[in-house]
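Lecture 7 notes: from sequence to structure.

We start with a single chain of 383 residues. Read the sequence below before looking at the structure.
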Amino acid sequence: MAATVLAPFLRATRSAVASGQLTPAWVVLGNESADLDSAVAAILYAFCLHTTTTNKDNELLAVPLLPIARADIALRTEVTAFLDGFGIDSAADLFFLEDLASLLQTSTKLALVDFNHLPPSLAHLAPRVAAVIDHHADAHGFPEASPRIVETVGSATSLVLNHWTSAISPFPAVTRAELARLAMGPIVVDTVNFDVDMGRTFAADLAARDTCAAWSTGPTVESPASLFARLQTAKRNVGTLRTADLLRKDYKEYALDCGTKYGIAAVPWDLRVWLARDSAARLVGDARAVAKTAGLHSLYIFTAFEDATSGQFGRQLAVVVPEGNSGSSEAAIVRALEQHVPDLQLELDRASSTPALPVYWVRNLKMSRKVMQPLVHPVLSKL
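Now the structure, written as tokens:
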């Protein structure tokens, strides 16, 4: 189905901002991983906010923004591939960190989608936050935000779609169909194609799926299974990326109470294949350089992939501490995680590990970053 509204909306928004014709009343901010869920949730919320609440003088402008450098969107291969199907040029049509300062020169409000706690790099924006829709652990911030929807579900996009469903319902059928196709991308990815055994599918996700199905029309509607397979292939097309790029492709940073920071890089690639391409010494050296530049206490490489031979899904974890860090060693961190977060079900991969980089299987396959981070955070706070 040809795109009908989304690409024109984004280009008109960028044109209006560039020309100074309109002052943005809202910036809809996805989280710093800038993954498919954040990108689509931001676009969908901004489109619905602008389309359903613009007054007759067209004074309201809602801008979707991803808090990464514009050049880094190319690393989100599943985002660029998916949005390309709507005629959206991700780098040209979306807004990024480079745009943020100019957008906030006025009293612009922020809507957070796909996170409810600002990372250290964005903490200064807290006074502007006026709306929150998220599916991560509730940090209990921004109690006066409206809406403030923080619910454990598979996809933040499910919550965004459900919030706007009644407002979207009067739209023309072709518009509803396009929005349904947009929303289904991250929903099917984040729920692992609605696989209840993975523990990532909730009532809100099923409600959003049913809404999308009701709005989808025509004989060429893509099945969820086909869409999931296509997006997984695009997401895992990372074998040519440098280590530094792999680590920032889907990266989140967190602050400890003591003032130090740690980062978790979600990487859709088997560490065994990665180590076969790059030596352990090179991978660790590059990762330590990334961690040191970011000022991290520690960096966690958290993989999720399908085995190239068996097709089985797997997760791995490797811990990297930058040189010169006077805090805990990699071994001490892993011991603490094994003791205090047994749900990770860590198991040393002796075949792949080296003294430079021990690699651990995460046998609990339901342990996504969203689930893992609230569990490891208090452990790291005590090290």
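The mean pLDDT is 93. Keep this in mind for problem set 3.
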